TrEMBL record:
It is an enzyme of class 3 (hydrolase). One of its GO terms (molecular function) is 2',3'-cyclic-nucleotide 2'-phosphodiesterase activity. Residues 381-560 form the 5'-Nucleotidase C-terminal domain. This is 2',3'-cyclic-nucleotide 2'-phosphodiesterase (EC). Its EC number is 3.1.4.16. It holds the Pfam family 5_nucleotid_C.
Length: 608
């Protein structure tokens, strides 16, 4: 695979840096809308000049270089036999470059790059890239080797704090784009908003391809602790409407948006923000001058989807290549030179499946040492378990493995509040089933077992809530179940994820007992909500141990985002679990597990 890049792209880490030109690329920052120049003219009476090129795209790589699952410590596989990782993507990219000609292709990404696996976690926290003489991030090394031209910022780029993100940006040989990631004080772009690439055509008339990067406004909620007071994230439509005309005035012949935002038009944050979370289709519909949008964030596969712009009637092509490097999007553009300019005559998209090719040995060999380090790390034994525990039934049963999360959170919050004003209040705790394949084995327990139980970088908070608010919270959570009439059989394959609610947005709460009557409509399902055997007083006060995602509004659960914060911790919950297991030495569900909630239909247990 050729590892030579066509261009090295300058970056503007701070706003106002003007325009950097290097190797045929223009990287823009605030106020950089100055003409790149046409200067080509056109011939009369000759056949039209044509040019075709391809833009390849990935998204939501989430720290996957290898086709490897660090939580199970074996090759990745799922029910659809997808493969993952940049090493697979590299092979596909190389094939496309050989077919199309390297100079006729670009490679971009739509964000969520540096969080999601133990590989990416290790180089953010265990052997951090921010340390003096620290390592180069594996994702930067792999993406540099493959030769990316640009990547949009995803919301998970901010999980480890701005210093880690800035170091990653510094290590990349391509710009991280975020036209709507603004400095909170100056309201100017904190990252390069766009890059303009020149495609050299056989007829000598270059095609200027602009890539505009847009990220998710939800960062302001989800990573408030890291970005509050430092950066703000306005809506995608508003910022696209500002930048696309500038790019056209600078001479862009083709405008592509790389958007870390799904296409559904929905949001998970209710009325907390005046923006849309999944706005890619709205951008295509509302902002004239866009030719294609690489979609990210939603983790779905969209091979080709057309949206008609309301103002121009022009069709804009959208594509989303699933997640984790499972797919590679190909945008194919056919251009014609007419009236002194290049015009997009035809644009379409398709996706390639990474399970059709082997891993690129150049990429795997480049990062073999880092991979081995992380495998050794996740296999460290931290304790033992008396019995095996699994999340397989956790979406519909109160399982000991979820009780373990709640026990750790409850103990941690009680210890933090001990001796203080709120020490006498009862502590409740919420937890979700993040993966239906997580488990703690009988016998030795390793870091990967504990980390697999909690794959996200969430941290722990304590909030003050009332009995009435708790009831509302549980009713909201119980929307997750499909309404199922009493008497008939229950198919667990069709019981959950009502209205597309993901598993991580269903919370079980420990410290109280209650039934969830799935025969009732959503909003009227919580029955017999009790504390220590007595019906809960709506005015009673409780300490609620809750993760920062939920506390900051993730999932749009009621009351908690506005509730008084009593305590917060900067350590990831999974590290707290790992530390708890290390300290106890042995995990015995008999010491903490109980059935606090159950599914019922008109009083009869669904699973007796």
């Amino acid at each position: 695979m050729p590892l030579n890049r066509r261009t090295f792209l300058g970056r503007s880490a701070a706003a106002g840096a003007g325009v950097a030109m290097a190797g045929g690329a223009v990287v823009g920052s605030a106020g950089a809308a100055q003409a790149a120049g046409h200067g080509h003219g056109h011939g009369h009476g000759r056949p039209a000049k044509r040019y075709s090129f391809t833009v390849m795209g990935t998204t939501d790589l989430h720290g996957n270089v290898f086709n490897w699952d660090y939580f199970t410590d074996k090759e990745y596989d799922d029910s659809a036999h997808n493969d993952i990782g940049l090493a697979k993507i590299s092979t596909l990219v190389d094939q496309v470059r050989r077919e199309k000609g390297h100079r006729n292709t670009l490679l971009i990404d739509a964000g969520d790059t540096i969080q999601g696996t133990q590989l990416s976690y290790y180089y953010a926290k265990v052997d951090p890239i921010t340390a003096r003489r620290g390592p180069v991030h594996p994702m930067a090394r792999a993406m540099n080797a493959i030769g990316y031209d640009a990547a949009a910022l995803g919301n998970h780029e901010f999980n480890y704090g701005i210093p880690v993100l800035r170091k990653f940006e510094e290590q990349c040989d391509f710009p991280l784009l975020g036209a709507n990631a603004l400095d909170a004080k100056t309201l100017r772009p904190a990252f390069a908003p766009y890059v303009i690439k020149r495609m050299h055509t056989p007829c000598g008339r270059d095609v200027r391809v602009a890539v505009l990067g847009l990220t998710n406004p939800g960062i302001a909620i989800w990573d408030k602790a890291n970005v509050g007071g430092k950066m703000v994230f306005p809506g995608l439509e508003e910022q696209a409407a500002k930048w696309v005309p500038k790019l056209r005035s600078m001479g862009a012949d083709v405008v592509i948006v790389s958007a870390h935002s799904g296409s559904s038009g929905t949001s998970s944050w209710g009325d907390q923000l005046p923006y849309v979370e999944n706005a890619a289709a709205l951008v295509a519909e509302q902002v004239p001058g866009i030719d294609a949008i690489l979609v990210g964030h939603a983790h779905v596969e969209i091979a080709e989807h057309f949206v008609t712009n309301k103002e121009t009637g022009k069709r804009v092509v959208l594509s989303e290549p699933a997640k984790w490097g499972q797919r590679l999007t190909l945008f194919d553009f056919d251009l014609v030179w007419e009236k002194g300019r290049w015009t997009v005559e035809k644009a379409g998209s398709r996706v390639l499946n990474s399970n059709t090719v082997p891993e690129d040995p150049e990429v795997t060999s480049l990062l073999r040492r880092e991979h081995r380090k992380v495998v050794e790390y996740v296999n460290q034994v931290i304790g033992t378990s008396v019995v095996a525990m699994s999340t397989a039934d956790a979406p519909w049963k109160d399982e000991p493995i979820i009780d373990l999360i709640n026990q750790v959170q409850t103990e941690t919050v009680k210890a933090a509040l001990a001796g203080g004003e709120y020490a006498a209040l009862p502590v409740l705790s919420q937890a979700s089933c993040f993966s239906r394949t997580a488990g703690i084995p009988a016998g030795e327990v390793t870091i990967k077992d504990a980390a697999g139980l909690y794959p996200f970088e969430n941290t722990l908070e304590a909030r003050l809530i009332t009995g009435a608010q708790l009831k509302d919270y549980l009713e909201y959570s119980a929307r997750y179940y499909v309404r199922t009439a009493a008497g008939g059989p229950v198919d667990t394959a069709k019981l959950t994820n009502a209205d597309g609610i993901p598993d991580y947005n269903y919370d079980a709460v420990s410290g109280v007992t209650y039934d969830v009557d799935i025969a009732q409509p959503a909003g009227s399902r919580i029955v017999g909500l009790s504390f220590e055997g007595k019906a809960i007083d709506p005015a009673a006060r409780f300490v609620f141990a809750v993760n920062n995602y939920r506390a900051s509004g993730g999932g749009n659960f009621p009351h908690v985002p506005g509730a008084q914060q009593l305590w917060a911790n900067s350590d990831e919950i999974r590290n707290t679990i790992i530390g708890w297991v290390r300290e106890k030495g042995s995990v015995d569900p008999a010491a903490f597990a109980s059935v606090g909630w159950r599914l019922t239909r008109e009083g009869a247990p669904v699973f007796p």
